[in-house]
UniProtKB/TrEMBL annotation:
GO molecular function, one term: metal ion binding
Mycothiol-dependent maleylpyruvate isomerase metal-binding domain: residues covered: 9-133
Official protein name in the record: Mycothiol-dependent maleylpyruvate isomerase metal-binding domain-containing protein
Domain of life: Bacteria
InterPro entries membership: CHP03086, DinB/YfiT-like, Maleyloyr_isom, MDMPI_metal-binding
Native source organism of the sequence: Actinoallomurus iriomotensis
SUPFAM superfamilies reported for this sequence: DinB/YfiT-like putative metalloenzymes (SSF109854)
Amino acid sequence: MTVISWDVLDQAHGALRTTVAKVADADWKLPTPCEQWNAAQVLRHAAGDQLAYVAAITGSGGPSENPFEPAGDAPADPQELLAAALDGSARAFATVSPGTQAVPSPLPQGSLPAETVVGAAALDAAVHAWDIAVAVGLPSPLSADLATLLMPVATTLAEPLRGFAYAPALAPQPGDDAVAELLRYLGRRPDWTR
């Protein structure tokens, strides 16, 4: 079997891993740009979403809790929770060949082209890495290069999911870079502070 590597997913997973590794235990209760969710809930949601992709692709290994109703307490070992989800996601996507036209996804749209499904999983991981980072006062893990790679999938998927997974888009502002453009498109204020 050929193992496929998806650079955009690797970058997004790396951003989320790096961020979670730097969060202090006391900071998991802090509010985030995801209204009504604290940092622990965003982490649980992000891990659950990656496991939802695992289940869609492999038929097993889904999340143990509803990613859209995450518990508010920090996991006993946040890095372990995340590693299990991201490692499972990477293994599942390693079986998906570029150019495949119908890859199962947990999204309401169902099966989509491989590049779209991989991009959706990467978008989720990268943006939630940013959510957690800004909530706890860390530098943004979302690079301009990664944001540029993720913008096409955002424009493909966000509209049907507005009000459920994404807030209404915010108007672009003069001087926005690729990161700010992506965040505003997904309904987030790039200058968000708690």
